[in-house]
Amino acid sequence: MTDTINLLDQRVLVTGGAGFLGSHLIENLLNARSVPRTNIIVPRSKEHDLRAFDACKEVVQGVDIVFHLAARVGGIGFNQKYPAELFRDNMLMGLNLIEAARLASVKKFVQIGTVCAYPKYAHIPFRENELWEGYPEETNAPYGIAKKALLVMAQAYRSEYGMHIIYLLPVNLYGPRDNFDLNSSHVIPALIRKFAEATSSGKDQVTLWGTGNASREFLYVKDAAEGILLAAERYDSSDPVNLGTGHEIEISRLAETIAKEIGFNGMIRWDPTKPDGQPKRSLDTSRAYEKFGFRASTDLITGLKETIQWYRTSFRTA
């Protein structure tokens, strides 16, 4: 296998291709990489339950590259409500798909991990070689550990079988087509929806979870898609790689920024009886740049404006 791959010539499987990140990855494959649509396979969960080994064996047949983006995932409340399902479903999908891809002699496998795999009190910025130096934040530990176990599997399969499998750790994603369901959404879409609905209904205050003191790093989804494809084309090693911007923001400041962009002029109240989640998240992104030339190009304000515009257009709110 050569050091670089021309995606134009490959038959590509994208699990989760109908979802948030997957839809942007496919757009990039079609537009920036000129991959024929007939060369892109997107299994739908109604037809192929990837928790089942037989379904995984079926979808990898004749495939050159697998992008495993499919995941059961949500925000803090969702993680607290369904910890067992999140662990089980994510483990089953990864275990079965990687083994099926090995048996089918897939040329390359791109496994998407999660920043939730990092220890709760990891040093800032998070560095890939410190991934195992502590237990993840409790509210998302089942999801994070399931994803981190797939890194062990990826490294083991590379060592024993010579499988070309890479593992990427994207930070919190946001952008157009995100999940805006308040029962399962992450922080940015949840804030956008809450402030937009408050503005539309004339409310003078919005109550948010936690203290607002936690900090997060956010990666625009289109940048994430580009980073994943660059890694598929140029990277082939057992070492995990962070994908992010290298810049964090406090949730309180993020909320104020989104409220301003939405046009909400009321009061923001915080409910400290609700969890903050991990205290801080910020990645060291130097490995991604050194190994395959990825550097995020969309600043947070630009990304937020585009996300808010998409939400307003799609949900027809103020």
Task: Characterize this entry briefly.
With 318 residues, this protein is α/β, with parallel strands linked by helices. It has 10 helices and 11 strands.
Q: Please provide the ordered H/E string of secondary-structure elements.
A: EHEHEHHEHEEHEEHEEHEHH
Helix tally equals 10
Instruction: Tell me the span between the first and last alpha carbons.
Output: 52 Å
Q: Quick one: overall form? A: globular
Q: What is the count of β-strands?
A: 11
The class by helix and strand makeup works out as alpha/beta
State Rg. Answer: 19 Å
CATH C-level name of the domain at 7-178 and 219-246 and 281-297 = Alpha Beta
CATH architecture of the domain at 7-178 and 219-246 and 281-297: 3-Layer(aba) Sandwich
Mean pLDDT: 95
Low-confidence stretches: none
Q: Strand arrangement, largest sheet?
A: 2-1-3-4-5-9
| Strand residues, percent | 5-15%
List the helices and strands and how they pair.
Elements: E1 12-15, H1 20-31, E2 40-41, H2 53-59, E3 65-68, H3 76-81, H4 83-103, E4 108-112, H5 141-161, E5 165-170, E6 172-174, H6 187-201, E7 205-209, E8 215-220, H7 221-234, E9 241-243, E10 248-250, H8 251-262, E11 267-271, H9 286-292, H10 300-315
Parallel strand pairs: 1-2, 1-3, 3-4, 4-5, 5-9, 6-8, 7-11
Antiparallel strand pairs: 8-10
Helix pairs in contact: 1-7, 2-4, 4-5, 6-8, 6-10, 8-10
Written overview of the protein:
41% of the residues lie in helices and 14% in strands. The strands form three sheets. A six-stranded parallel β-sheet has the order 2-1-3-4-5-9, sandwiched between helices. The protein has a three-stranded mixed β-sheet with strand order 6-8-10. The chain has a domain at 7-178 and 219-246 and 281-297: Rossmann fold. The chain has helices at residues 20-31, 53-59, 76-81, 83-103, 141-161, 187-201, 221-234, 251-262, 286-292, 300-315; strands at residues 12-15, 40-41, 65-68, 108-112, 165-170, 172-174, 205-209, 215-220, 241-243, 248-250, 267-271. The mean pLDDT is 95. Helix 1 (20-31) packs across helix 7 and helix 6 crosses helix 10 (300-315). The protein contains ten helices and eleven strands. With 318 residues, it is of the alpha/beta class.
